[in-house]
Automatic annotation (TrEMBL):
Protein name: L,D-TPase catalytic domain-containing protein
Highest taxon listed in the record's lineage: Bacteria
InterPro entries: LD-transpeptidase_YkuD-like (IPR052905), LD_TPept_cat_dom (IPR005490), Peptidoglycan-bd-like (IPR002477), PGBD-like_sf (IPR036365), PGBDSf (IPR036366), Transpep_catalytic_dom (IPR038063)
Coiled-coil boundaries: none
SUPFAM superfamilies: L,D-transpeptidase catalytic domain-like, PGBD-like
Active-site residues from the entry: 375, 394
Xref: PROSITE patterns: LD_TPASE (PS52029)
Source organism of this protein record: Methylobacterium isbiliense
UniProt feature, compositional bias: Low complexity: 41-52, 494-511
Domain L,D-TPase catalytic: 245-421
Cell wall biogenesis/degradation listed as a keyword: yes
Signal peptide: 1-32
Pathway, per record: Cell wall biogenesis; peptidoglycan biosynthesis
Length: 551
């Protein structure tokens, strides 16, 4: 039953009308389920004092229902069923945002390297190294230094009977002062001396005596002297154009240095050539920087890598985004090539730019006959290793964009004169995905050197492992049974030493070369050396007869 609210008129007839309505309501409430009816408004002034007032029907007690459930409505037969109130409509829940998958690469973990601002290669390095070789020769003649137990491990403050032997070693190498008190304890002075020793040998300067430091301590003095003499021999004939700014990559250190005004502005972790694909010695200039470079696979790597891969997996080129081009630049399908032969070397294999490109996002051009260069790499996990000899001849540089920014100082930025190549501009240029070649306004000299032992102007000797086994080729006067320092397995016997190198090394080991030349005279150039015999091969300054021009 639906009741409408009716406004009754006020006046003399209102009391009677109101009483009738009240009587009717009471009757309806007794015969059916009571439905509350709103009370009609009655003027208080019009109603007489003795008029009966309508009584308000009692409200039925509502049953409690569980949330979300509707109680059925009871009705009498023959009467219309009241429409139950519609349940409140719940607002649709907002969909939870999809979990975003980050496309950012994980942070690159880099090996710990020296932060010494003294450059590896400087104009005085040849003479400094030559004199240091003579000093170590005196140590050898005096009996060298005793070894320490191979299993020795010490922390600061600890005591051990072998500590006096360690003190004597560090005193001979001038890491510890001669007036240091004798003791069997790793005191503060000895820990500081051990840190200096670790820095000179390219080891983490922790001040802890562990396996790597013990291994370096047990290298004989004769081996260290030979490293110095052999490195000086390799520097003979150098015409490197030292300038205010230059770049040096020391291959045994696997590092790259950006040198400015005689000090290292930044030293970078690097990955250099494998022992069987050695990085060559190079002296040239950096002329260009390439964003999003392509990579043309050299013939040597087509034979060594591509053809074996294609024989196992015919889809290898497609996976690596490498296209085959004929002599006219037309693309050739790999299925048209007989990979059981070496016919693929007659085609150009070029890898498209991208994250999986072997050169990464940046290449640093430095014209040279070995076709090697510095570049980025997608395999950044190798930068965390201590031994970083994994490339095929080129030098991979960690955080190469920082080196690029340093090289491009003074070169107009993307907006022309008045703009610069800062970090944002470099990232923006790479983000386009298009190749872009930037020519340096002023080329920067660069040198790849192989120095296993060298001296700096401050009178310190630095040593690195002879990874390529080249020190054994130097005709030093050390006995043939002197051990080497290579941390990688032995390689095949080295080829015969070239006459030019022999002549240079013979001059180095003689004591007459020690102080006979003033410091302001440059090392002798190749033309000043006697010509080799006609039957001998033409001398050239390379570390290997063949160096692969790959990454």
């Amino acid at each position: 039953m639906v009741l409408r609210q009716v406004a009754f008129p006020s006046g003399p007839r209102a009391p009677a009308l109101s009483a009738a309505v009240a009587l009717w309501l009471l009757t309806a409430a007794a015969s059916a389920e009571t439905v509350p009816v709103p009370q009609a408004p009655v003027s208080a002034a019009a109603a007489p004092a003795d008029a009966p007032r309508p009584t308000e029907p009692a409200k039925p007690e509502q049953a409690k229902t569980e949330p979300g459930k509707t109680e059925p409505v009871k009705t009498e037969p023959g009467k219309p069923t009241p429409t139950p109130p519609a349940p409140p409509t719940a607002e649709p829940a907002e969909p939870s945002p999809a979990k975003r998958v980050s496309r950012e690469l994980p942070p690159v973990v880099l090996a710990r390297i020296s932060q010494d601002p003294t450059p590896t290669l400087a104009p005085s390095t040849f003479l400094d190294t030559l004199r240091m070789a003579d000093r170590y020769q005196a140590i050898v003649q005096a009996g060298g230094w005793p070894g320490v137990p191979a299993t020795l491990s010490l922390k600061p403050g600890e005591r051990h009977p072998a500590v006096p032997v360690l003190r004597r070693h560090l005193t001979l190498t001038e890491d510890l002062g001669p007036d240091a008190p004798a003791s069997d304890q790793m005191d503060e002075a000895l820990v500081a001396a051990l840190r200096r020793y670790q820095v000179r040998h390219g080891l983490p300067d922790t001040g802890l005596l562990g396996p790597m430091t013990v291994k370096a301590l047990n290298v004989p003095a004769a081996t260290r002297q030979r490293q110095l003499a052999a490195s000086a021999a390799r520097l003979m004939g150098s015409r490197f154009a030292f300038g205010e700014r230059y770049v040096v990559a020391n291959i045994p250190s696997a590092t790259v240095e950006a040198v400015e005004r005689g000090a290292v502005a930044r030293r970078y972790v690097a990955v250099v050539g494998k022992p069987d694909r050695a990085s060559p010695a190079v002296e040239t200039r950096i002329t260009n920087v390439n964003f999003n470079p392509t990579w043309t696979v050299p013939v040597s790597l087509i034979k060594k890598d591509i053809i074996p891969h294609m024989r196992k997996d015919p889809g290898y080129l497609a996976k690596m985004h490498i296209r085959m081009l004929d002599g006219q630049g037309n693309e050739v399908q790999p299925t048209a090539i007989d990979w059981s032969t070496e016919k693929a070397v007659n085609y150009t294999l070029r890898q498209d730019p991208g994250f999986d490109n072997s050169l990464g996002q940046v290449r640093i051009d430095m014209p040279n006959r070995h076709a090697v260069y510095m570049h980025d790499t997608p395999s950044k996990g190798l930068f965390s290793r201590t031994a970083r000899f994994h490339s095929s001849g080129c030098v991979r540089v960690a955080e190469v964009k920082g080196l690029v920014a340093w090289l491009l100082e003074g070169t107009p930025g993307p907006g022309g004169p008045g703009t610069v190549w800062g970090p944002i501009e470099i990232e923006t240029g790479i983000a386009t995905g298009e190749r872009r070649d930037i020519k340096l306004v002023k080329p920067v000299p660069v040198a790849f050197v192989y120095l296993t032992g060298y001296a700096t102007p401050d009178g310190r000797a630095h040593f690195r492992d002879d990874v390529y086994g080249l020190d054994a080729e130097a005709p030093a006067k050390a006995s043939p049974d002197v051990p080497t320092t290579a941390s990688i397995g032995p390689r095949a016997p080295a080829p015969a030493v070239k006459p030019a190198a022999a002549a240079g090394a013979s001059a180095l080991v003689g004591k007459a070369a020690k102080d006979s030349r003033p410091a302001d005279i440059k090392p002798p150039v190749a033309e000043a050396k006697p010509a080799p015999p006609a039957s001998a091969p033409k001398p050239e300054r390379v570390l290997r007869p063949e160096a692969s021009p790959r990454t």
